[in-house]
Amino acid sequence: MNFKGKLGLQQRVLPGYRVPFFDLLASRCEGGMSLLAGQSRPEEMIADGETQTRPEHGRRVAKRAMADNLHLFGGSFYFCYQRGFIDWLNHWNPDALIMEANPRYLASPSAVSWMRKRGRRVLGWGLGAPKQSGLWKRFIGQFDGMIAYSQRGAEEYAALGFPREKIFVAHNSVSPAPEKPDDKPLTIDHATILFVGRLQARKRVDSLLRACAEMESKPHLLIVGDGPEREALQTLAKEVYPSAEFIGAKHGAELKPYFQQADLFVLPGTGGLAVQEAMSYGLPVVVAKGDGTQDDLVREANGWQIEPENYDALVAAIKNALSDTARLREMGKESFRIVLEEINIEKMVDAFVRALNSV
After folding, report:
1. Is 172 left (phi over 0), alpha (psi -120 to 50) or beta?
2. Is 303:335 a contact under the CB 8 Å cutoff?
3. Coil, helix or strand for 354?
4. Torsion angle, CA of 163/164/167/168, rounded to 10 degrees?
5. Domains of the chain
6. C-alpha to C-alpha distance for 175 and 343, rounded to whole angstroms
7. pLDDT tens readout for residues 48-93
């Protein structure tokens, strides 16, 4: 099933990890797809997908149009106005438009109005509505349909009165359906724990170092990534867990050997797109609860969700995970099944096309 018209899709920025998804979605749009996105703020350190040349992304299918992002204020007062939005609509003239459902993007109402005048559909795409308020209710009310990253997000939209039959869940994904990983041994002397992500304070890698030090049988800890906290974390590791290995930043195929040698993937802080990739290698996972996307990925059968900032819960989850190798392997098999059958970019694209055709 394809979308037979021309699709326009708006994003504030184009991160590299979204390029495969957008290209796959574009290949399902018979009239083509154009993507409007601007540049991030320097402090965000988001690598633009247009400038990244990772071989696994393959050829580009989606047409990129550059917006001129005007960043206003910061923190909880941040707003963004995308100059060039209406010019892009006039040029591309889409049959349907999918927009980020974020009331902080000030050009959105004008774009919705442009589409309305021409009798065309507009869908919102977002994490959910964290603030159950009149502002959010009015904002999402302008859309013909809502695409949520997670089931929790869908419930938040429904709680604001958005019609359930017009809400679609496209589980947040950055990886294609995986190939079956190699079987792992049922007995191990020292488990290998893997962290992959940016080394910044909110990732709580410091807690992971301390937690590993509390294990009776000391695991091999691999920390893959770089960032502003790396030097401080390496200094801390010398004090509390000297055997920890800091691998540095790795991307794409470079990550494969680290996922292959791991027994457990741990993400002790917020955010992180590597959870699904870890699951594609048959790894059980320990993750901190976040925006709802983890709820769909991480279940009792394949991992542990812990409260952010709860160090005791992190220690308990790792001890529990490493206490039974046979169970750990079965949980890893369930991780693989979830990303093979339920949550991958192919399934995500299916949900987007279904939403487009339904509204």
Report:
1. beta
2. yes
3. helix
4. -160
5. 7-174+344-358 (3.40.50.2000), 192-341 (3.40.50.2000)
6. 9
7. 776 554 444 444 668 899 999 999 998 888 999 999 999 999 999 9
The string of pLDDT tens digits covering residues 221-266 is 999 999 999 999 999 999 999 999 999 999 888 999 999 999 999 9
Count other Cβ atoms within 10 Å, centred on residue 269: 22
Phi, psi of 85 (to 5 degrees): -60, -50
Are the CB atoms for 144 and 163 separated by under 8 Å? no
Return the axis-axis angle of helices 108-117 and 85-92, rounded to nearest 10°: 30
CA nearest to 221, candidates 296, 136, 130, 322: 322
Paired strand residues for 68: 83
**Rounded to an integer, what distance in angstroms lies between the CA atom of residue 252 and that of residue 52?**
12
Q: How far, in Å, CA of 25 to CA of 227, rounded?
A: 32
Round to whole Å and give the CA distance between 134 and 335.
39
